[in-house]
Design brief:
Helix content is 26%, strand content 26%. It is of the alpha/beta class and 453 residues long. The protein has three domains: 36 residues; 207 residues, 3-Layer(aba) Sandwich (Rossmann fold), CATH 3.40.50.300; 174 residues, Ribosomal Protein S5, domain 2. A nine-stranded mixed sheet has the order 6-5-7-8-4-9-10-11-12, with helices on both faces. α8 packs across α9 and α9 packs across α11.
Length: 453
C-alpha cells in the first residue's frame, strides 16, 4: 500500500465509517454491513482567508424565487418534479428492480428530445440493443437521444463533453465507478464519489442530471442517506408489480412540493399517464356489495377516489387472522379495537381482511372512517349506499376528527356522481355542499355507523 492510502471500514447501509471492522453498525444497527475500503489520504493544505471577502447579503435583497424550468413534455413527470426540470439540478429516482424506472425515464427523455432537448442516456445495466428494443416498443426514435453503454465515469465525462446534453441519465448509479477510487463498483465510496462528481459536472454545464437507483430489500436506495443528501430531488417510483398502476412520489424536492404524485399505467407500449385516476380506480367496483367503501383520498395536490374492501369471517382456528393490503397493518388493528370497544362489534372471533383496490397504498388518516365503514359493513352484512363516500380520521376514544382539504374531497366525489358524503363534523364549518350532494357530519364512530346503513 502506498503511503498516501489508508484502510477504513464503512457501513454499506448508512455510511458510518470506522478504523476497524465491526460486526454491528453503531450508526444504523445493521449486522455484517461493514466492508473494507481504501481511501486516498488527502494532504492537509493550509487555507488562507487573506484577501477573500465573505459574501453575506440581507434576505430581502435576494432574488431567484422564480426558477427557470424546462418541461420534459410528460405531464405527470413534470408535475412531480415541481413543474419541470431545473437546469443544473440533480434528481434521484429510486424504485424496486422491474418496476419501470428505465421505461419512465426513457419516455420522459423521448418527449424532451421531441421538444428540442438533447439527452445523454448512460446505461450500465443493459446493452445498446436492449435499450433500442425498449425504445422501439415505446415508439421513441430520436437523433437527439444519445445512448452510451458505459460504467466508467471518466468515459461518461468524455461522452458528456462530446454531446453537451441538456439532460443526463445514469441508469443506474450503482453500476458506475471512477478510476480514481479503488473501492469496487456499487460500494458506498464509489457511489458517493461518482455521484458527487456527476452532480458537480451537471451543475457546471446547467444540465439536469437523473440518477436511477435501485431500492434494496429494506426499502432503501443502497447508500440511501448519502445520496439523498447530495441531490436536489428524490423521487420514488412504486406500485404493486402485479397491478398495472404505478405511483411516482416526490419524497424530497428543493424546487417544489413533496406532496405531488404522478399516476401511471403500465401497458404493452410503455407507461401511460392516468389523467382521471378516480374513474379508473372505481371502474370495477361492485355496487351494493357489503364491505366496500369509497374514500376521497389526497394524492399530492389531487384527490383520488379509492375503494376500500373488507372481509370479516368467523375464525376457524384459535387465533384470528388479520391480513391487510394497501393500508398500514397497525392502523387497521387500532380501528378494529375502536370498533370493538366503542361500537360493540365483537371482532375477536373473526378473521379480518382489508384490501385497497387497484394496488394503491392509502397512507393518510382520512381513510380511517372508510376502513371503519368497510369492516362494519361486512361484519353487519349491510351494504353501504353505492353513491356515498366517507372520510375522516378516527381517534382512540372513537371520536371522528377533521382532516385537511375537505372541499376538494367533496368536489371530486360530486364530480363522479356521488350524492352523499359522511365526514367529520369539524370539517363542516365553512364547507358548501356541491349541487346534488348531501353532507352528513359525524363526531363519533357510533354516530357514523348509524349514518352508514
Ligand atoms: P423497466 O423499465 O426495465 O424496469 P426497471 O428499470 O425499474 O428495472 O421495466 C420493467 C417491466 O416493465 C418489465 O418487466 C416489462 C414491463 N414493460 C411493459 O409492460 N411494457 C413496456 O412497454 C415496457 C418497456 C416494459
Ligand atoms: Mg432499469
Amino acid at each position: 500500500m502506498s503511503k498516501k492510502q489508508r484502510v477504513q471500514y464503512s457501513c454499506q447501509s448508512c455510511g458510518h465509517t470506522s478504523l476497524q471492522w465491526l460486526g454491528k453498525c453503531p450508526g444504523c444497527s445493521a449486522w455484517n454491513s461493514f466492508t473494507e475500503e481504501r481511501v486516498a489520504e488527502s494532504p492537509r493544505t493550509k487555507v488562507s482567508l487573506k484577501g477573500e471577502e465573505v459574501v453575506a447579503l440581507p434576505l430581502s435583497g435576494l432574488t431567484g424565487t422564480d426558477v427557470f424550468r424546462e418541461l420534459t413534455g410528460t405531464a405527470e413527470f413534470d408535475r412531480v418534479l415541481g413543474g419541470g426540470m431545473v437546469p443544473g439540478s440533480a434528481v434521484l429516482i429510486g424504485g424496486e428492480p422491474g418496476i419501470g424506472k428505465s421505461t419512465l425515464i426513457l419516455e420522459a427523455m423521448g418527449t424532451f428530445a421531441a421538444g428540442g432537448g438533447t439527452v445523454l442516456y448512460v446505461t450500465g445495466e443493459e446493452s445498446l440493443r436492449q435499450i433500442g428494443m425498449r425504445a422501439e416498443r415505446l415508439g421513441i426514435s430520436s437523433d437527439r437521444v444519445v445512448v452510451a453503454a458505459e460504467t466508467c465515469l471518466e468515459k461518461v465525462f468524455e461522452a458528456i463533453k462530446s454531446t453537451s446534453p441538456g439532460a443526463i441519465v445514469i441508469d443506474s448509479v450503482q453500476t458506475l465507478f471512477t478510476l480514481e477510487c479503488e473501492a469496487s463498483a456499487g460500494s458506498l465510496t464509489q457511489l458517493r464519489e461518482t455521484s458527487a462528481r456527476l452532480i458537480a459536472k451537471a451543475k457546471s454545464l446547467d444540465a439536469t442530471l437523473f440518477l436511477i437507483g435501485h431500492v434494496t430489500k429494506e426499502g432503501f436506495i443502497a447508500g440511501p442517506k448519502t445520496l439523498e443528501h447530495m441531490v436536489d430531488t428524490v423521487l420514488y417510483f412504486e406500485g404493486d408489480k402485479d397491478h398495472l398502476y404505478r405511483l411516482l412520489r416526490a419524497v424530497k424536492n428543493r424546487f417544489g412540493s413533496i406532496m405531488e404524485t404522478g399516476i401511471f399505467e403500465m401497458t404493452e407500449a410503455g407507461l401511460k399517464e392516468v389523467l382521471n385516476p378516480s374513474e379508473v380506480f372505481l371502474a370495477e367496483r361492485p355496487l351494493g356489495a357489503t364491505g366496500s367503501a369509497v374514500v376521497p383520498s389526497l394524492e399530492g395536490t389531487r384527490t383520488v377516489l379509492v375503494e376500500v374492501q373488507s372481509l370479516v369471517c368467523p375464525t376457524n382456528f384459535g387465533v384470528p387472522r388479520r391480513t391487510i393490503v394497501g393500508v398500514d397493518y397497525n392502523r387497521v388493528m387500532i380501528l378494529a379495537a375502536v370498533l370493538e370497544k366503542k361500537a360493540s362489534l365483537v371482532l375477536n372471533n373473526f378473521d379480518i381482511f382489508v384490501k385497497v383496490a387497484g394496488g394503491i397504498r392509502l397512507t393518510e388518516p382520512a381513510a380511517d372512517l372508510a376502513i371503519i365503514a368497510s369492516v362494519s359493513s361486512n361484519y353487519l352484512e349491510k351494504p353501504l349506499d353505492a353513491k356515498t363516500v366517507v372520510f375522516g380520521e378516527v381517534g382512540l376514544t372513537g371520536e371522528v376528527r377533521a382532516v385537511g382539504r375537505p372541499g376538494e374531497r367533496v368536489a371530486e366525489a360530486a364530480k363522479l356522481g356521488f350524492t352523499r358524503c359522511i365526514l367529520p363534523c369539524g370539517n363542516l364549518k365553512g364547507l358548501k355542499a356541491p349541487k346534488h350532494m348531501v353532507l352528513k357530519g359525524v363526531s363519533t364512530v357510533q354516530e357514523a355507523i348509524e349514518c352508514f346503513f
